[in-house]
Amino acid sequence: MPIRELKVCLLGDSDVGKTSIIYRFTKDRFEHTTKPTIGAFFVYKAMSCGKELHKFLIWDTAGHERFADLLPMYYRGSTAAVIVYDITRWSSFHTLKKWVQELKEHEPEDIIIAIAGNKCDLSDVRKVPLEMAKDYAESIGAIYLETSAKSGHNITELFKAISQRVPPLSPGGGEKNVSIKLHEPKQRHSPPSPGAGNSYPLTVSVHESTKD
Ligand code: GTP
Predict the structure, then answer these.
(1) String of DSSP letters for 10-69
(2) What's the pTM value of the predicted model, to 2 decimals?
(3) pLDDT tens-place string over residues 149-162
């Protein structure tokens, strides 16, 4: 099975739930209290897409503006950017638009942009109307989904939608037979702490053999 490594970065205001989305996607868990991300960290997660295996290299970035100058270092060269806002906070929707502008100015045209309206489990205190966000996403050709890292709603679907937008490898484009295994370290002294500034203790082994 051909394997593709896809760099995906999550961007958005502080507290919108970037780390929580990653934690839900990679560990299927949720924490009510998280520490702010310091700088950035990454984690791997693989998912099959048709005849390919997509190995996501997911970068979580800090939403706090004191880290803003560092962020281009992390999103540069990404296949996809997931811009997250909190449906209960208008200011986070305005920040999302700034991110779109920045990506359009500095990244190649074919970068896949996905917008996640997170915390949709709190829709009774919603500030940003669903239709408005959807129309905006459509106007810029972005994927749009409302998500909840808390309930897990649309989290896997978000990454699936990204996978489906990645053009398939052209024939003879360096295909390899690959088997991939995700495993956790045998000894873990404490549970992973989302937002602690480290990658989660998830490692990937890849075994490749060239096609005849
Ligand atoms: P920074 O690291 O500061 O950029 O924040 P972040 O965007 O990574 O947010 P984080 O994942 O740390 O979540 C912030 C807070 O929102 C935490 O208290 C989470 O438990 C909470 N949270 C995240 N996602 C959801 C969600 O889908 N629903 C609800 N109700 N709370 C959420």
Answers:
(1) EE-STTSSHHHHHHHHHHS---SS-PPP-SEEEEEEEEEETTEEEEEEEEEE--SGGGGG
(2) 0.83
(3) 999 999 999 999 99
